[in-house]
């Protein structure tokens, strides 16, 4: 993987190493970016269009906010497209609401107001492909780590821990190596965004390679936490043939660097390691985005998690997840924030239906998956 000293090359990005989120809330860089910006290439005119399209939805949101009750902690609980009473399920709200989160964003897309969509994704988009995520209680990898014999869950992705004991990661890698899983409807939905010319970039934390497998081209994809396609020595970064590393790991042996004899590791980014160079495309992409879709991530890992705060403050952000995460946990929500809580595949299918893309996605998926079986 192409690593570089980002401290020197990108001075405005202070955090370049993967860390567990400290849960401190960052100030919103979008506010700062917008302050003082004139009507430039994506200045006032476009913003006004988006604002007026959102105005109706905001009116709807404030109406529902007036009708919602504080929880026992005095906070308002949130759900699809607005604020809900504590205990009211997002499912019931989105099913009955004529202007839910998905409908209002679908409307913007259909009006042609979302030409630079950025997608931010995590392990939740691949659970439908049979790959467990990290943190879902019961089924997530963190709940099932006893067999890897690690002192705490994150140790399995900790570079210092790996240095002393690579075995737990290699055991897990055997299960995660691309090859035994196929992309699902959610991956193909993102591919369709690209097909429609609307995808500016997809930023994924996933290491399963399913985005590439479904046909999202390389230049539209940032695998922020690396992957298994390449491998290198974890100490001196000498490149090692990825297929050889895979063969060794699959055979329960340890691939060793030909230069310094330290352990070789697939280029999955561990806690404490630098993110790949491509990740820094975000400095140009996020200010350009006119819709941000966040899906299947707990937004617990930095610096990735903070990316969602770097779109302009007027840009709609749609969260598709089982529960509210990151800035979507805050009440009141930012203007233009929407969430659809529940099973991701169900939400994405509904969204695609509203956009009129469902048949095309099904067809694309069928033809690509049939080809893969041949
Ligand atoms: P996470 O912390 O496990 O969060 C996943 C999120 O997705 C949670 O909020 C879940 O509630 C939600 N979710 C899971 N399944 C569904 C579903 N069917 N419908 C709706 N929501 C769902 O994982 P993150 O991606 O946030 O954490 C980043 C880590 C996870 C990255 O470093 C990855 O490398 C790592 N990871 C990747 C994979 C993979 O490549 N498939 C698998 C496991 C872990």
From TrEMBL:
Query: Which InterPro entries does the protein's record reference?
Result: DHS-like_NAD/FAD-binding_dom, NAD-dep_sirtuin_deacylases, Sirtuin, Sirtuin_cat_small_dom_sf, Ssirtuin_cat_dom
Q: Which residues bind Zn(2+)?
A: 233, 236, 257, 260
Q: Which GO terms describe its cellular component?
A: nucleus
Under Pfam families, the record lists:
SIR2 (PF02146)
Q: Which residues form a coiled coil?
A: none
- Answer whether the UniProt record assigns the keyword Coiled coil to this protein: no
Per UniProt, the keywords (alphabetical) are: Metal-binding, NAD, Transferase, Zinc
> Deacetylase sirtuin-type domain: from which residue to which, for each copy?
95-358
Basic and acidic residues bias located where?
Answer: 57-66
Top-level division of the source organism's lineage: Eukaryota
Mind telling me what this protein is named?
Answer: NAD-dependent protein deacetylase sirtuin-3, mitochondrial
Recorded source organism is Liparis tanakae (Tanaka's snailfish)
């Amino acid at each position: 993987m192409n690593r570089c000293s980002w401290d020197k090359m990108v001075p405005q990005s202070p955090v370049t190493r993967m860390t567990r989120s400290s849960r401190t809330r960052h100030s919103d860089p979008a506010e700062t970016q917008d302050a003082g910006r004139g009507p430039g290439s994506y200045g006032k005119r476009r913003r006004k269009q988006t604002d007026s399209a959102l105005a109706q939805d905001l009116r709807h949101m404030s109406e529902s906010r007036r009708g919602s009750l504080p929880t026992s902690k005095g906070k308002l609980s949130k759900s699809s497209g607005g604020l809900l009473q504590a205990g009211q399920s997002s499912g019931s709200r989105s099913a009955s609401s004529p202007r839910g989160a998905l409908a209002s964003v679908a409307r913007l897309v259909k009006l042609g107001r979302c030409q630079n969509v950025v997608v931010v994704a995590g392990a939740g988009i691949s659970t439908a492909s049979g790959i467990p995520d990290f943190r879902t209680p019961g089924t997530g990898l963190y709940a099932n780590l006893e067999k890897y014999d690690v002192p705490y869950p994150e140790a399995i992705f900790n570079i210092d821990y790996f240095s002393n004991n690579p075995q737990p990661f290699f055991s897990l890698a055997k299960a995660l190596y691309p090859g035994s899983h196929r992309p699902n409807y959610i991956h193909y939905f993102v591919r369709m965004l690209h097909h429609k010319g609307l995808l500016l970039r997809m930023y994924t934390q996933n290491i399963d390679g399913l985005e590439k497998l479904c046909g999202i081209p390389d230049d539209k994809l940032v695998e922020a936490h690396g992957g298994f396609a390449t491998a290198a020595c974890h100490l001196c970064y000498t490149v090692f043939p990825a297929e050889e590393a895979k063969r060794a790991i699959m055979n329960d042996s340890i691939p060793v660097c030909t230069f310094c004899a330290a352990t070789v590791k697939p280029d999955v980014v561990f806690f404490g390691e630098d993110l790949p160079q491509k990740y820094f495309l975000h400095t140009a992409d996020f200010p350009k985005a006119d819709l941000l879709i966040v899906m299947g991530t707990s937004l617990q890992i930095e610096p990735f998690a903070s990316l969602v705060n770097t779109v302009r403050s007027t840009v709609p952000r749609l969260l598709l997840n089982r529960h509210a995460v990151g800035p979507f946990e805050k009440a009141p929500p930012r203007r233009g924030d929407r969430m659809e809580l529940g099973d991701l595949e169900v939400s994405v299918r509904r969204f695609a239906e509203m956009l009129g893309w469902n048949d095309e996605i099904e067809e694309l998926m069928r033809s690509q998956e049939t080809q893969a079986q041949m």
